[in-house]
Design goal:
Pathway: Quinol/quinone metabolism; 1,4-dihydroxy-2-naphthoate biosynthesis; 1,4-dihydroxy-2-naphthoate from chorismate: step 6/7; Quinol/quinone metabolism; menaquinone biosynthesis. Its EC number is 4.1.3.36. Keywords: Lyase, Menaquinone biosynthesis. The strands form three sheets. The chain has a seven-stranded mixed β-sheet with strand order 1-2-3-4-9-11-14, sandwiched between helices. The longest helix has 33 residues. It contains ten helices and 14 strands. The protein has 271 residues and is of the alpha/beta class. The chain binds 1-hydroxy-2-naphthoyl-CoA (1HA). The site of 1-hydroxy-2-naphthoyl-CoA has 22 residues, from α2, β10 and α4.
Length: 271
């Protein structure tokens, strides 16, 4: 077993490999890994742990078992205005997980066996890459069960599969198999489900060999193309990070601390 527990949770599992791959597993197989507010809270914590751990380079998001990646919001705890947790408050907090995945400065890979349905489908959509088992089934159910995700679940989906296909997916609520998903560019790769984890790890390890800052900036750039000013926030945040690493920026800080005038003229201007 290559997985070591990073943190104990109730609804999810958070494991890591020695070489810097984290795996977040939604662990509610009795409901096809549907999420309730507590699940979502834990997912947010897990993503934060992964973000803050400088040894983690890639994150896998998956569901327990081979039946399902995730079947979306737990309809059994759906109340007025959202999904109701132990605190009695109705929430749609999965949207915060979508944001966390998008702004995570490391690649997030969806590893999909079985159903990725409804809000569970949107989760794989917002991940950087998707590796699917040959038993994977994809689809939205919103208009059938009285819900919809008009945010990234629609607009970003359309960036991936195109407007016509995105409308088909949402209006008809059909299910698509792994081959169909591959054909429409919805997933990156399909393998027999028994090889799913090995193949996903292979993709992760290829990324681990590459420059983390380059991957980070690429993710921010690709996001910025879709994400407006919040996309620019993350992209520019990376520019600031790189600038802070430079001697030129350090001169500004040191001059302030030493109560002297900064000398920026000693630095060459790039063409
Ligand atoms: O749209 C949003 C949001 C939009 C904006 C903001 C926030 C959002 C948050 C969430 C969502 C949504 O996710 S709405 C979409 C909710 N999900 C669904 O409509 C999918 C419902 N499930 C299914 O269609 C099917 O169960 C399945 C295709 C995933 C699997 O079918 P299968 O293999 O035939 O299994 P099935 O017998 O249906 O399910 C096994 C058990 O899991 C059942 O429980 P049991 O009868 O044994 O007690 C079933 O009720 C349970 N289950 C499956 N999915 C869910 C679920 N229980 C609660 N919630 C589920 N989502």
């Amino acid at each position: 077993n290559i997985w070591n527990t990073m943190h104990e949770f109730q609804d999810i599992k958070l494991d890591r490999t020695e070489d810097g791959i984290a795996k977040i597993t939604i662990n509610r197989p009795h409901v096809r890994n549907a999420f309730r507010p507590e699940t979502v809270k834990e997912l947010l914590q897990a993503f934060e742990i992964c973000r803050d751990n400088s040894k983690i380079g890639v994150i896998i998001l998956t569901g327990e078992g081979k039946e399902a990646f995730c079947s979306g919001g737990d309809q059994k705890v759906r109340g007025n205005g959202g999904y109701v947790g132990q605190d009695g408050l109705p929430r749609l907090n999965i949207l915060d997980v979508q944001k966390a995945i998008r702004s995570m400065p490391k690649p997030v890979v969806a590893m999909v066996a079985g159903y990725a349905i409804g809000g569970g489908h949107v989760l794989h959509v917002v991940c950087d890459l998707t590796i699917a088992g040959d038993n994977a089934k994809f689809g939205q159910t919103g208009p059938k069960v009285g819900s919809f995700d008009g945010g990234l679940g629609s607009s970003y989906l359309a960036r991936i599969v195109g407007q016509k296909k995105a409308r088909e997916i949402w209006y008809l609520c059909r299910q698509y198999n792994a081959t169909q998903a591959l054909e429409m560019g919805l997933v990156n790769h399909v393998v027999p489900v028994d090889e799913l984890e090995a193949e996903t790890l292979k993709w992760c390890r290829e990324m681990l060999e590459h420059s983390p800052l380059a991957l980070r900036c690429l993710k921010a750039s690709l996001n910025a193309d879709c994400d407006g000013q919040i996309g620019l926030l993350d992209l520019a945040g990376n520019a600031t990070l790189l600038y802070y690493l430079s001697e030129e920026a350090k001169e500004g800080k040191e001059a302030f601390i030493e109560k002297r005038k900064p000398d920026f003229n000693k630095f060459d201007r790039f063409p």
